[in-house]
Amino acid sequence: MTIELQTADTTAVREALAAQTIELPSWAFGNSGTRFKVFAQPGVPRDPYEKVADAAQVHKYTGAAPRVSLHIPWDLVDDFADLRSYAEGLGVQLGAINSNVFQDDDYMLGSLCHPDAKVRRKAVDAHLKCIEVMHETGSQDLKIWLADGLNYPGQDNLRARQDRLAEGLSEIYAALGPHQRIILEYKFFEPSFYSTDIPDWGTSLLHCMALGEQAMVVLDTGHHAPGTNIEFIVAQLLRVGRLGAFDFNSRFYADDDLMVGAADPFQLFRIMNEIVDADALRPDSGVNFMLDQCHNIEPKIPAQIRSVMNVQEATAKALIVDRAALHEAQQASDVLGAHSVIMDAYNTDVRPMLADLRREHGLDPHPVGAYAASGYAERIVAERVGGAQAGWGA
Amino acid sequence: MTIELQTADTTAVREALAAQTIELPSWAFGNSGTRFKVFAQPGVPRDPYEKVADAAQVHKYTGAAPRVSLHIPWDLVDDFADLRSYAEGLGVQLGAINSNVFQDDDYMLGSLCHPDAKVRRKAVDAHLKCIEVMHETGSQDLKIWLADGLNYPGQDNLRARQDRLAEGLSEIYAALGPHQRIILEYKFFEPSFYSTDIPDWGTSLLHCMALGEQAMVVLDTGHHAPGTNIEFIVAQLLRVGRLGAFDFNSRFYADDDLMVGAADPFQLFRIMNEIVDADALRPDSGVNFMLDQCHNIEPKIPAQIRSVMNVQEATAKALIVDRAALHEAQQASDVLGAHSVIMDAYNTDVRPMLADLRREHGLDPHPVGAYAASGYAERIVAERVGGAQAGWGA
Amino acid sequence: MTIELQTADTTAVREALAAQTIELPSWAFGNSGTRFKVFAQPGVPRDPYEKVADAAQVHKYTGAAPRVSLHIPWDLVDDFADLRSYAEGLGVQLGAINSNVFQDDDYMLGSLCHPDAKVRRKAVDAHLKCIEVMHETGSQDLKIWLADGLNYPGQDNLRARQDRLAEGLSEIYAALGPHQRIILEYKFFEPSFYSTDIPDWGTSLLHCMALGEQAMVVLDTGHHAPGTNIEFIVAQLLRVGRLGAFDFNSRFYADDDLMVGAADPFQLFRIMNEIVDADALRPDSGVNFMLDQCHNIEPKIPAQIRSVMNVQEATAKALIVDRAALHEAQQASDVLGAHSVIMDAYNTDVRPMLADLRREHGLDPHPVGAYAASGYAERIVAERVGGAQAGWGA
Amino acid sequence: MTIELQTADTTAVREALAAQTIELPSWAFGNSGTRFKVFAQPGVPRDPYEKVADAAQVHKYTGAAPRVSLHIPWDLVDDFADLRSYAEGLGVQLGAINSNVFQDDDYMLGSLCHPDAKVRRKAVDAHLKCIEVMHETGSQDLKIWLADGLNYPGQDNLRARQDRLAEGLSEIYAALGPHQRIILEYKFFEPSFYSTDIPDWGTSLLHCMALGEQAMVVLDTGHHAPGTNIEFIVAQLLRVGRLGAFDFNSRFYADDDLMVGAADPFQLFRIMNEIVDADALRPDSGVNFMLDQCHNIEPKIPAQIRSVMNVQEATAKALIVDRAALHEAQQASDVLGAHSVIMDAYNTDVRPMLADLRREHGLDPHPVGAYAASGYAERIVAERVGGAQAGWGA
To answer: What is residue C393's predicted lDDT score, i.e. its pLDDT?
Structure first.
């Protein structure tokens, strides 16, 4: 059966979509690549201000991306209050602060898990510095992803590293303000190859539970082994009240960091279906929907616009699932019937509804085209001459 | 550097090896196969008594396999006290009781997670029956592996199934005696294809923590996604005191149930290395080392003997790791040096030491050969004529 | 941009869809399951005639499934001419003949690759028997899938098995009639776990090339390692003129045999996109589009109907790709633009167009509903009482 | 049974080991890392001469690494004849020439497969330049690994890219001298994420067969999907006479480029077992055994020494397999017996035999220790001051 969106009362769906926000990563606008090559793109930002300006373009055309995550030290500025008011002037907020304890030479063999106490001290201090930044930016979330891990069996003691990790996190947690959170990311491989110190949601959750209620798990959709059912993890973390945020992106094999929804749009829909089912889409649910992806060969601003639209489309499909019919079929053990309810929503073309919604809110119905027509891309290429382009190293 | 076992004082190593015990599964002695075909083997047991007799052969030649796990209802007998004394007469104990709630027609769409309360009731009752059996057999561990899961997105509600699971487990847990445990297994796929209701150690652990201190996680070495670092999970579960048991076997891709150590002997060594490192090899550590594997094309008794020997060899290698040198290299951030310490132990041929140890304990140094020479295999082929051979269905 | 199917001239698309045919497997209508359990379903066929009758229902409601593959010996009948005319009376043809050399006890360690020449002889003869059947049924394709492989390193000689395989295939090939083909399937694991003797398309292709022009590769969508780009293989096999057939199904991790399009509908679309791009959809392209999937927990006839519809929908989306725009964007190195052209087609809801097409051809626009309303399901449950239900073993 | 190397006649084994050579990659001595960070190491070479000097150290202590592969343009020098005589003065030869058509900005979307004919021209010319270098260095092998591929479905036409690839290779092949070869590498992912243009051995082989007898396949042990049986591919390529070379390294999940034998030593043994079984170890077999691995966190020279030793140990184990007993057990369908023959060889400690062999040839029995004691590492740290360290980009 097709779902007739034209004639249905989609008021609640539209309201939910209008309230949805997606946070953008500042580093998505800088150069990025693989270990083989970083291909520079003309017009790429040279400082955090220009990154924020580019992110604001995404919000301008989608109306759904009002926050920008920063990465410290990549986005260090002298005056974060100034950066904050600059952002607000462009209609966006500064969002989560991402710590970076993997690029200083001292961190070659780890940061919070390093066998050397001096390196651990330095890594804790780097996080305390991030919390200071958060006070200035008004950020609520300290996102911690560690590159810690081992390349070779025996290289270090797996369990001792967990103990060191717990100790370091504990000191960082103690420094949080009352409305601040640690959101702790897991990743099952890379840049370490034999083991990573937070490889799975179970490990992240154990540390969060040990820390307290202000510690939550970050689920990056690219950080799982093949065959992993990600929406199950979403449901599980929501059930125990510990899903703090998403890092959205998509991947075919490794942590490919492609545009969310590009590799497996059906999976993205299933993830959003769990979110809707648990009523976790509402703005006060405690789940921060963030993008974390890189654009190595495609232009960065339109790629972010497209990604936001992909999340919106998956969300819209999740919102139009006929939950009463679904529940009824599930209770009746009607395997094909229940599956069909899900597929009917997925197979529906929600783009016209989203285009309408944009028009209602004064936006162009076609964000990518509107951005392309704006001349912004050409302008930054012309203007951003000289200086050092931002990338993962700056 | 080679480790000179001939001249070293290996007293502690030998004592640890002599104290190690491995539990055998009764079902390893029956017929098994794939969905394509079960190839019957001559001489296969026709009842639980004959399975126990075969298991006792493995213990007779290895001296290291003094317990047999049972599977209910496959191993139901009229008088478990009689089976118990029969086993003890052969020198072995009855071990863990495995519930089976996946072969009755009612369980097609699940057991403890089924949408229908009547099916859930039946599944809980099946477990309560297992606990009754445990009182008669003297078993301490109720091993729960559920085939519950979904084949299609939407087929049932992922989160509701977790809630039902928690409720069912809670009722079963309440029926445990003071010295009994639930050991809860996870499996990331099969026989369900889209999702399994306990897919990973995190899910199993969450349920165990909710139940109480008598609930522990079972780690089956074949139940992980490709690329998963299993020894990390071992270390993590030991760290939180919740590693209840192993189901040992080996696999190349799926849950292949090959002989442990046959597919990746280095991985088995790394797992035992974490066990030794955490001092969890000692008999009172609470970790039950069990085999759970099937022999589809190879003869069953020698395959179990070989598997026990493989675990012993991996353990022996783990025991001879020079932990002082390892710790020193790790603290010094000497990546290659630390890795070398591990590899030196792994590359050592421990078979002569194990052969000596067997001689010391009055065993033939070559268990497979001794079993082959005993004529037992020919005897059971001759004697076990008529009746229905045991298999996964009985 | 949304593709406006209502107003576009979709004549060519409709003609291509109307000409598309999908072959059904007789075994999809019998009972099937996993190694853990086969759950029987009421009304399941008890002989090949009833299987053909059920398959004819799928064609009746979709108009797109006019052939039925048989499996020998599962579908052996005394008089194939009679079965053929029975099928034709129901509006369907007998299609490919599938050999089965994996269920006789002699085949435990292989068939065409077995170390024992007597077993190889028997396996060749089984195929010659299939060719005889083909003469009676009018079938063109002898589909060969072998369960041959190894569970343990060293079990047999990998290379010698290839030589034996080549020799056996060669004898079978020589017996083909001038309009008959061998279509040779590959599978990367299961039921063997360590190695399979035709694990990948490269191996199948090498054997086909050695045999001659009447040997072609079968691509089963469930028979690849995780992360494999299947549409690349489709394109490659089409390029060298050796794609003989598809075995369609879908899977999340292993050879799950779920309904095609259920696990990753975007992948199915990408596969059909390569087919359309190479003009291989036309009936005389030499590609036989077959289903090969099992319905363990869902009702079998509607699951086949749904599967046929899924293939039709993926095909329709592939047909509406704006290939001129795609080519232009690709030539211009417009990564996002080219990707968008593909996604615009994929995101279009083609179900209304397919419903229209069915109406045009005198079919109910909603095949699943029409079948459900027909009472056929209830009738076979009532009528098929007694006898032995068909399954993988019969 | 243990294999008693002390008393056995191992003359043939020792001769085979003494004749074995392994080629080293120049880039293993430069800095390398991940997309997250390249950690520089003190003493790293600053030019090709210093790389060759470091490689010569590996040969000095192992006696088994007499060739060095170069990477063009990373290793471009003004006078290759001079570099060649420099190398020969240090006791090593210049080996395979590796083309690099992935770091110039023009290659962002591909090289030989690029949609733009101008870029393809440039990529062909880069290879022709490599052939010129080969004439000067006396190299026989032009190793081609392409980073070509796609990140997004639709980005380019999969099949057209194959046609362009065939055309480009054909022109390069035509420029080969009579004793030169193209060796063509495949890789299933990275740096492209959606598809790579030579993802598997089948694709590489098809192109080699189209080119002619001087084109051979390169098997990089890190370039396969999880679960792939690599020794099967080795056996298959040897069977068709197209295994040109190995790129040895090891990996847990992706193309980790760890030291060969570090992640799965049993797999390395199985690979060498196929080599020995096909008599492809002998120097004139046409198989070039090369290392291709990076040392991101461990010191580079000892890591290469260790890697060479790992290959030697795996080879030694393969050489002591009792092939008569293996064949007999295989023919008798003795699954466990045949597997045991393989495992007996694998479980044997061959390090004492290799130490003896080194002594016989005037080498220190412990290469890593001897290198460490030599003071070379300290010397290059002291001497190599100033200049730009070599890395993947230079």
So the answer is: 67
pLDDT at D393: 67
How crowded is the C-beta side of D149, counted as CA atoms within 13 Å? 21
B191, B149 in Cβ contact below 8 A? Answer: yes
pLDDT digits (tens, 9 = 90+) for C32-56: 999 999 999 999 999 999 999 999 9
Q: Name the strand (E) or helix (H) holding D185.
A: strand D181-185
The pLDDT tens digits of the residues spanning C133-159 come to 999 999 999 999 999 999 999 999 999
Query: Are A237 and A243 within 8 A, CB to CB?
Result: yes
Confidence at D1, pLDDT banded by 50, 70, 90: low
Contacts of B114 (CB under 8 A, 6+ apart): B107, B120, B123, B148, B164
Structure confidence by residue, pLDDT tens digits, D95-141: 999 999 999 999 999 999 999 999 999 999 999 999 999 999 999 99
- The per-residue pLDDT of chain D, averaged, comes to 97
Bridge partners (DSSP) of residue D205 are none
Phi, psi (degrees; rounded to nearest 5) at C303: -65, -35
User: Do residue A157 and residue B109 have CB atoms under 8 angstroms apart?
Assistant: no
Does C270 lie at the interface with A, CB-CB under 8 angstroms?
Answer: no
B389 phi, psi to nearest 5 deg: -65, 145
Q: Does residue A85 register a pLDDT over 70?
A: yes
State the pTM of this model: 0.98
Judged by phi (left if over 0) then psi (alpha if -120 to 50, else beta), residue B235 lies in alpha
Residue of C nearest to B225 (CA): C253
pLDDT confidence of residue B84: 98
A contacts of C349 (beta carbons < 8 Å): 2, 347-349
What proportion of chain B, given as a percentage, has pLDDT over 90? 96
ipTM of the complex: 0.97
Side-chain half-sphere exposure of D60, counting CA atoms within 13 A: 19
Say how far apart CA B322 and CA B318 lie, in whole Å.
9
Q: Which two tokens mark B64?
A: 């290291």
Give which of A139, A148, A224 is closest to A183, Cα–Cα. A139
What confidence tier does A2 reach under pLDDT thresholds 50, 70, 90?
A: confident
- D347 to chain B: nearest residue by CA? B349
CA distance B391 to D360: 57
Dihedral angle, C-alpha C375, C377, C378, C380, nearest 10 °:
120
Q: Count of C–D CB contacts within 8 Å?
A: 144
How far off is chain B from A58, nearest CA to CA, in Å?
32
What is the sign of the dihedral through the CA atoms of B220, B225, B231 and B235?
Answer: negative
Report which of D64, D72, D209 is spatially closest to residue D139, judged by C-alpha positions: D72
Q: List chain B residues with CB under 8 Å of D299.
A: 336
Q: Which domains does chain C have, with CATH numbers?
A: 20-321 (3.20.20.150)
Residue type, A70: L
**DSSP labels, D292-344:** ----SSS-HHHHHHHHHHHHHHHHHHHHTS-HHHHHHHHHTT-HHHHHHHHHH
Across the interface, whether the CB atoms of C297 and A336 are under 8 A apart is answered no
How confident is the model at residue A1, as a pLDDT?
63
- Residue B200, token pair as written in the block: 């990973």
Cβ(B42)–Cβ(B51) under 8 Å?
no
